[in-house]
Structures are given as C-alpha cells and as structure tokens.
Request: fold
Amino acid sequence: MADQVAYLPLLTRRQRQVLQAVARGLTNQQIADRLGIAHTTVKWHLGALMAKFSVSNRTELAYVAAKCGLA
Reply:
C-alpha cells in the first residue's frame, strides 16, 4: 500500500481525475462525458493507471484509489 501511495504525486491531473472517477464507480462513458474526453482516451488512461499501480482490473484499481484517499 505504501508503495502505491508513492505513485500519487507522479500522476497527471487527468490521471488523478480518472482514478477518482473509477473510485466513485463511474463507467468509462460517464467518465468520458464528465471530463469531456473520448471513451478511448479513458481506456488509455485506465491502462496506464493499472500498469502504474500493478493491478490487473478496474476493481483492483478502484480499491487502490479508495485506499489512497481518492474515493
């Protein structure tokens, strides 16, 4: 967990926004609509975030976000 929190300062503003939205349970399309970006861009950000936090799915990513205080 401490290792994952260390990544927070390395996130871009947009990555942080996407991560917060995932933690709140929004779908990719809802995230895209709220942030004014393409659905495919959301998918790209999610892939980058999953790699950065070493998780393999959206549920694990949401859990990490919640544990980091982004929910």
Observations:
- The chain has a mean pLDDT of 88.
- The radius of gyration is 11 Å.
